[in-house]
Structures are given as C-alpha cells and as structure tokens.
Design a protein that fits this description.
single chain; alpha/beta; TIM Barrel; 8-stranded parallel sheet; two-stranded antiparallel sheet; 12 helices; 10 strands
Length: 304
Amino acid sequence: MPETANSSISYIEMLRTSARRVGNCTCMGLDPIIEVLPESQKDIRSRLTSFFESLFKAMISRGLRPAAFKPNIGYYAVLDRPREHVFDGSLALADIFGMLRALFPNIPVILDSKRGDIARSSENYAKEAFDCWNADAITISPFMGSDSVGPFEKANDGKRGVYVLTRTSNPGARDVQGLPTVDPVDEKDIYPLHKAVAILVSSWANDRPGTGAVVGATSIRELGEIAAWFSQKEIPMLIPGVGAQGATAPITMEVLQTAGYELPLARINSSSALTHPWKTGPAPSDHIDRCLHNIDRMLRETAL
C-alpha cells in the first residue's frame, strides 16, 4: 500500500513543510468532467489518467508545484457502474493518487468526500479515506456533532488532517450556516452557526492536532473573522471558492495576512479554473497551455 506524503511527521508539519518547499499555499482541485476533457477513443479510466499525466508532467517541466491536491470523490464515483462491475472512475482516482505520490512527493493529498455519520459508520468512512485511499486528509460534515467528528479525529492520530465544514463557499450556505445559535462553550453569547462550529473546531483541535476547517473565500468577512479566531492556534484551513465561484486569490491572501493567520497552514483551492478553464467541450488544442497559464498565476498569487 502506498505511503502518505510523509507519514513520519504530523499533518501540521506536513502543511508547513510542503508550503515552504514549493513557496505557495495553493490547493489544486482535481474534479474532472469527462465531457470537457480532450476527446479520445480510450476508455474512461485511460482518458482521465492520460489527461492528468500529461498535465502533471507539463507542470513539473515548468516548475509548477502546488502545496496540495484535492480530488473530490464524487467526480470519480459517478463514472463507476458497480452493478455492471465497472469501476473506471475509482480506478482512475487510484491511478491519479499514484501519479501524485510519484511526481509530487511530500505534497498533501486531501480527499474531498464530506463524509459525516456516527459510530461505526464514521469509523468506516475514516478507514475509507485513510486506509483504502491513503489520503493525507479528508473533508467531513459536523452536522451530527462530536459523535460524527470523533471517529475521524481518532483515526488521524495527528498524522492526518480532518477538515470540518465550517463556512462553505456555496450561495446556499447561509441557509443553515448563518442561523443564530448559542455559543457552544459558555452558552451565553449568540453566534451564527458557522462561528459556533469554528469554536468547536478550535476545541477539537486542542485534543486532536490536525483538525481544521473548510472556510470559503466567497464569504470574505466570515473568512476574516474565522482566520482571526484561529490566528493564535495551529488550525489548518481549506479555503475553496477561488476561480469559477467568484473569489480571488489576492484578496483571500490579504484577508489571511490581515487576520494574522499562519499562511503555510492555509490551502487556497481552485479546481475547474486550473484543470478545464474552457468549461465546455470540446477541449481546445492548447488545453494544456491554458491550464498551465492559470496554474502559474494561482501559484504566484498565493506565494508565501
């Protein structure tokens, strides 16, 4: 079984070390849409792996190395047909994990699966991420509280990351995450739910280092508040929303710096803008160059 990026150090140190080595805090989302990738007569698995192999090798040749990668499992599982014994999507994801380990050693791979259940179910999801996929970190939902989060934290043992959905980047996030709730610690103040979750994340991180938060760059005021709350703590932040969702890397970096947050612990994510910025098929003949242009810009905009 392949090792994690660096299983001898904590996830916190893995983040710091990788960010400083590559000089940025970019997280490259790997969320392929098969319809917009270059046309090919190959099967789905081969089509995905050949696309990413070409892109990754071109990145290496240009010296473009992000500080993390984040495949969303849903983009791969949807390509499987289990009842027909076809697992092209999952096998492609396994191939991509292998390429990342070989081509970008010691760079964290975050499995974006947003799992969340209780008891044995959460334990199984944790094993799925950490044992089956051998990911360095996972995204999870805290909706069922410590019963849901606990098994993931227990499984990480400080060597893996657990990113708790806190203030997500989607427009509908305010429907639930903005609801008023009582401070979960002193039960006196009233906060929006996302701040209550941030307080819980801080508490959980005290006991389980490597526990972090997903906080969208599209909610810039909330991002600044949460970053300031975490500024004196070792709490990783995964920050989606840059690119297609409308946020920008320079403003995100400015907010983090103003808040006094430790930049090497942040991973600012962009997905489709880096892997298929043409959005709809067919892919243009210069598709690799378009990707490299956006990747280069993102790395420069998130430079440490």
